[in-house]
Design brief:
Blueprint lengths: L1 H44 L1
Length: 46
């Protein structure tokens, strides 16, 4: 019984870490896209 609880806990932790990494990667990507959009708008204005 204890082994099953440990396995469940490990899967929960792994899932949480994966979601956190995905969220952090998305935030970085979002910031890059915003910078690119600003750059394109600036070049378009010239």
């Amino acid at each position: 019984m204890d082994v099953e609880i440990i396995k469940t806990d490990i899967e929960f932790i792994k899932s949480g870490i994966k979601k956190k990494v995905d969220t952090e990667e998305f935030e970085v990507l979002e910031k890059r896209v915003i910078r690119l959009e600003k750059l394109f708008q600036f070049q378009k204005a010239i």
